[in-house]
Amino acid sequence: MATRTSPAPRGRQQTRSKGASAVAGTGRSKAPTNGTARTPAKTRPVPVAPEPQHEDGPAFPLRALRAVWMGMASVVASGVRTFGHDVNPDRELRRDGSGFFLLLSALAIAAVEWWALTGTPADVVHAAAGGTFGWMALLLPFMLGIGAVRLFRYPERHRANNRIAIGQLAILFAGSGIAHLVGGRPGLSDGLDALWRAGGVAGFLVAGPLSSILTVWPVALLLVMAIFLGILIVTATPFRHIPSRLRTLYEHLMGQDPDDDAAHRRADGHDQSYLYEAHGATAKPEPKRRKRLFGKDRQEAPFDGEHSGHDADGYVGDEAFERAVIEDEERRAREAEAAVPAGVRRPTKQELAAEELKRSNAVRVPPAEAPERAPEGATEAIDLVPAAKALIVPSTPVQPQMPPTPIPQRTEQLQLAGDVAYTLPPSDYLPAGTPPKERSEANDAVVAALTYTMDQFNVDAKVTGFSRGPTVTRYEIELAPGTKVERVTALSKNISYAVASSDVRILSPIPGKSAIGIEIPNTDRETVSLGDVLRSGNARKTDHPMVMGVGKDVEGGFVVANLAKMPHLLVAGATGAGKSSFVNSMITSILMRSTPDEVRMVMVDPKRVELTAYEGVPHLITPIITSPKKAAEALQWVVREMDTRYDDLANYGYKHIDDFNKAVRNGKVIPPEGSKRVVRPYPYLLVIVDELADLMMVAPRDVEDSIVRITQLARAAGIHLVLATQRPSVDVVTGLIKANVPSRMAFATSSVTDSRVVLDQPGAEKLIGQGDALFLPMGASKPMRVQGAWVTESEIHRVVEHVKGQLQAVYREDVAVEAPKKQIEDDIGDDLDVLLQATELVVTTQFGSTSMLQRKLRVGFAKAGRLMDLLESRGVVGPSEGSKARDVLVKPDDLEPVLAAMRGDEPAAQPRQAQAQAPIDLVADDLASRAQAVEYHDGADDSDDDGDTDAWKLTGR
Ligand SMILES: Nc1ncnc2c1ncn2[C@@H]1O[C@H](COP(=O)(O)OP(=O)(O)OP(=O)(O)O)[C@@H](O)[C@H]1O
C-alpha cells in the first residue's frame, strides 16, 4: 500500500497526482519542524506520486469544455449542498461532474417521458430510455435525481451510493419485466415499438425467457420479490428489521418524534439514514444547529449576568481539556500530521475511500449484534433490583447531536408536597456540544499505521473497522485463521510507537466480539457536553430523580446511570484526571432533573473550592461541610438518619424506601393512634465526599465505621454515598470500604497499584486524563471506558441560580447539633484523665514542676514530661526554663473553662449555628421545633408555622 507503481489510466492519474502532490507538499513543509524529532527510523521510502504531466493532458478545446462543464456542475452542486442542512464534502472526493451528468439526464428524460417533449433530440432520449426500460422510463428521472443528489452531497460514501444504485437497478429491471408481462409479452417479431410500449428491451430480456419456461404468475411473483429486495437494498434493511423499520417509518410519517433514534438504532442495529434516503431527501436531517450568540458558539457564549449576578465573562473553569501550552490550530494540525509514523505515507483520501470499498466488513458492527451490555453476574447480586439496571445501556455507535428537547419528560411545574410549585431548570441552560465526528483524518492515519505495523511484522490480520468515541477510538482487528491473538498483543509497544502514543490499550477480545480492540487516543478529542447526555434518549427514558449523565462510551453512545442502583460509588483518579468535573456533572444532573423533595444532598468538600458553587441550593440539608472533623460527624448523622428510616420501614412493614414512599403517597401509612406525626415520603439522600483521604486522615476509624455501616445498609433506606479521592491507596480506600462500595469510576491513576485498588485490575493508569475514565458499575465484570460529561462553571452557576431562585435552603440543624460533643484533641489521646488531673494540680498549686507531677500523679519521667508539653501547648504553663519550675499562666479562677476545653466540652452549638449561614428565614422557635422534631417517635408536633418550608422538609417529621 505504501508504493504504488502500476500506471493508472490517464484521467485517474491526473486526479490522483493532485492529491499526491499535496501529500508530498505537506511532507516538505513538515521537514523543518519535525526534522530533529522525527527522523524516519525506517528507510522505507515515502513514495512520491509523479508530478502531473501536462504535455499528456487533453487538447485545449477539450480542457476548456471540461472546465465549463465542471464550472456549471460545481455551481449546481453547491446549491444542492446548501439545501436542508449544509454539507461540505472534501474537495478531493467531490464528483460534481458525474452528479451533474445524472441530473441533466434526469431532466432530459423527465422532459420527454413526463412532459412529452417532441423533436429529434427528444426522440433520441425516448429511444434510449423508453426503448431500454419501457414504462419504467417514467421512474428513471427519480432514480437519476437521487443518484445526482447523493453524488453532490455525499460523494465519499461509496458503499452507500453503490448500494442504492444496485437496489435501484434491481427495481428498474424487475419493474421492466413486470411491464413486459402486463404489456402483453411482445416478442421481437412484434417490432421494437411494441417492446417499448411494454417493458422495453430490458423487460423483454428479463421476463421473456422466463415466462416462456414458466407461466406468467410465478414469473410475476419472482419479479415482485425482486422489487421488494431492491427496496430493502436501497434502504439497507435486513429482513429481521423490517417490522421496526416500518414502525419507524410510520412514526416518521405521522410526525411523531422519531427521537429515540438511539433506541431504535440499538434495536435495529443500523443507521436510519435510509429512511430519508428512501424519501429522496438523501440525508437524515440533523437536529437544528443552535444559533450562535454574537458570533460565538453557544457553549462559549458568556452566560448573562442577569441570572448569575456575575459579569459576562463566564467563569474560570469553563474550558474543557485544559492545556498548559497555548498553541495555535495550525500547530495542532501539524501535530496530528506528525502522528503518522515514520515510514508510513499518509494515504490520500481517494486511496482510503478505495480501501474502504474493498473492505468486506462494515466499519461499524451493528449494535443489535453486539451484546446487550447487561453486566455479567448481575443476577447474583443479593439485591432485589437487578444489578444490571445500575447502568442504563449506552446507545449506538454513532450519535448525531441530540435535539435540544427539554430534559425531563414530565410536567415542568413540579408540585412539591404541599402547595409549593417548583420549576426545574430549563434544558437550554446546558447548551448542546459540538456534533460528534464519525471519522476524522486522525483515524485514517491510525488505520494506515496499524496496517503498516502488522504488515511489517508479518501478522496476518487486518483492521476491519473502528468506532470513534470522543476521546479514544477503538480499532477492531480480525485475525486470519491460524493467527495467534498473542501475535497482535505482543505488538503493543510497536503499535504505540507507530501511532506515537503511549496510551494504547489492547482489549483481547472486545467483549462479545471475535475481534481484538485497540484503543488509541484521538489526537482531536471532543468534549461531551452534559446537556447532550441528559437530552439523550437513554436519559429521557426514565424520570428517576437519581439519574445522572455519565458521559460517552468508546462507541460514541451516551452513558447514563442511576445512582440509586449503584448503590454507592467510589470515584478515584490522580489530580487533574477529572474527578471534580465528574462530581459536578453528577450534582448538576440532579439539580436539572429533581426537586429537593425527591433528592437531598450532603456535600463534604475538604478542599473548600470544588463544591462551593452549590452553596445554598435547596437540595442541601446542611451547608457544604469543609472541615474533615465536621464531615466525620455528618457521616454519623447519616448513620442515625439511616437508622431512623429503617425503624420506619420496620414499623410499617416495608422493605424499601420506594415502597414506603408509595404507600405514604397513597395514604396507606397511618401513624399510631395519638401520634401527631405527619408521615411524609423520604427523599433520596445523596452524600458526596469530594476527598475521602482528608477525612480518613482525621478520624480513620470513625469515618470507616460510618461508611461501612451506611454502605452496608443504606440502599434500602434510599441513602447513597459517592466517595471521591485522589489517593486511592489502601489506607484511604480500605478493604472494608472497598468491599462495600460496589460501583467504581476510575479516572487516570498515577500507578497500576492505584488502578488495582480502585478497579481490582490494571487499566486506569493507561487513561489519558481530563475525563477519560473506566466505569465499573455494580455487577459488571469489565469496566467500560467513558469520556466523562463536561459541564462548565457558567452552566453550573446558571443552574444553581435558577434552583436557588425557586426555593431557599433550610438546613437541618441536627446534622451537627446532635453530633458527639467530645472533641478530644488527637495528641491527648488516652491521657485525658491524667492530663485533667495534672492541669488541676498545676493551676491550683500555681507550680509548674515536672517532678511534682511525677510524684503526685505517680507517673514516670517521660509521661510527666509529655503532660507538661501538653500543658504548654494549651497555654497552661510557659516554656521550659531549664531546671526551674515553669510559669503557670492560668489562674485558679479560670480553671473550669480550661478543663472543659480539654474535655472537648466547648459549646458546639454557637460556632455551629454561626456556620450554618443563617438558614434562610429560620427563626429560633422554628429551629427549636425542628430540633424537637428529630425525635419524632414520641410524636412531636409537625405543624410548623412556615407552611412553605414544611412542605419539603427532609424527612417530613
Ligand atoms: N469530562 C471532561 N471533559 C473535558 N475536560 C475535562 C473533563 N474533566 C476534566 N477536564 C479537564 O481537566 C481539568 C481538571 O479536571 P478536574 O478538576 O475535574 O480534575 P480532578 O481530578 O478533580 O483534580 P483535583 O483532584 O486536582 O481536583 C479540568 O479543568 C478540565 O479542563
Biggest β-sheet strands, sense, barrel = 10 strands, mixed
Instruction: Provide mean pLDDT, rounded.
Output: 72
CATH architecture of one domain: 3-Layer(aba) Sandwich
Note the total helix count.
36
- As a percent range, the share of strand residues is 5-15%
| Small ligands present | adenosine-5'-triphosphate
Shape category: elongated
Terminal CA distance: 75 Å
InterPro entries: AAA+_ATPase (IPR003593), FtsK/SpoIIIE/SftA (IPR050206), FtsK_4TM (IPR025199), FtsK_alpha (IPR041027), FtsK_dom (IPR002543), Ftsk_gamma (IPR018541), P-loop_NTPase (IPR027417), WH-like_DNA-bd_sf (IPR036388)
Subcellular location: Cell membrane
Organism: Arthrobacter cheniae
GO molecular function: ATP binding; DNA binding
What does this entry look like structurally?
α6 (158-182) packs antiparallel against α9 (216-234), α16 (441-456) packs across α18 (492-499) and α31 packs across α32. This protein has 957 residues and is of the alpha+beta class. Among the domains are: 556-817, P-loop containing nucleotide triphosphate hydrolases (Rossmann fold); 829-907, Orthogonal Bundle (Arc Repressor Mutant, subunit A). The strands form three sheets. A ten-stranded mixed β-sheet has the order 1-9-8-16-15-14-10-13-12-11. Strands 4-5-7-6 form a four-stranded antiparallel β-sheet. It has a two-stranded antiparallel ribbon with strand order 2-3. The N and C termini lie far apart (75 Å). β4 (461-468) and β5 form a beta hairpin. The model is unreliable at 1-55, 257-313, 323-332, 338-350, 355-415, 817-823 and 906-957 (pLDDT under 50). It contains 36 helices and 16 strands. Bound molecules: adenosine-5'-triphosphate (ATP).
